[in-house]
Amino acid sequence: MDLGIKGKRALVCAASKGLGRGSAEALAAEGVDLIINARGAEALQQTAADLTDRYGVSVQAVAADITTEAGRAKVLDVAGPIDILVNNAGGPPPGHWTEWTREDFIKALDANLLTAVALIQATVPGMIERKWGRVVNITSAAVRSPIPILGLSNTARTGLTGFVAGLSRDVAKHGVVVNNLLPGLHATDRADSLDGSAAQAEGISIEQARARRQSGIPTGTYGSAADFGAACAFLCSQQAKFIIGQNLLVDGGTLNVTM
Fold it and tell me: Are strands 176-183 and 33-38 parallel, antiparallel or unpaired?
């Protein structure tokens, strides 16, 4: 299927690896020119080179901390007008609710709620003027089924979900489509970190922790960044114009609900 977005221009955050890279790669495969961002310059430049070589699209790499005002200003200055925004930022560390301070919550809100809001406010008005735009927010399956040890993430990402619910309906009449992608467990550094934390807490090996977590997924395995990226690319497509304000689970069927 031709997604109809060749020649569009996209900003993809946290794109040097994991789900962000999977999303950037899927868009590049559709002929979308990219501005990619991450904090680590070396990995980001390598990703840019790889995507340019493989897909022949323009890829501009901007190393910056997107969760800071200065970082966002740097990225947006390079990006200019964009057609597609993929919001993504690493989640807060796991822990217990008795341990988290006000500062911990503020940091989580800055990274996983307010950064996305700021980027939307900076880019969506231009999409409205041009009568076309796509925003995909990479959040978490935890907004549908909270994970106790990820309370900081549960809190911040659920706030973003509420913001998007109203925003998406307001801008749809201008041809701007906004949705959320809710990943479950994927084979990324985040899964490795969670497996390591579980192994340490329970005195088992990382392999044992991973096998146990995978056994709770109907597919029997973690998801891949490539498959996740394909879902992101579809939500950015011309064909997604009637999908508004939705929360698409990409979790291998882990959340056991009817609706």
Answer: unpaired
Domain with CATH 3.40.50.720 in the chain: 9-184+225-248
Structural tokens at position 42: 């070396």
Contact 227, 251 (CB under 8 A): no
User: From residue 198, how far is each of 149, 195, 201, 220, 222 by CA, in Å?
Assistant: 10, 5, 5, 18, 16
Q: In which element (H, E) is residue 84 found?
A: strand 84-87
Angle at which helices 41-55 and 18-29 cross, to 10°:
20
pLDDT in tens, 232-254: 999 999 999 999 999 999 999 99
Report the phi/psi class of residue 182: left, alpha or beta, with left for phi > 0 and alpha for psi in -120 to 50.
Answer: beta
- What's the predicted TM-score (pTM) here? 0.93
Phi, psi of 83, deg, nearest 5: -100, -30
For 52-78, how does the pLDDT look when each residue is reduced to its tens digit (9 = 90+)?
999 999 999 999 999 999 999 999 999
Q: In terms of CATH, what superfamily is 9-184+225-248?
A: NAD(P)-binding Rossmann-like Domain (3.40.50.720)
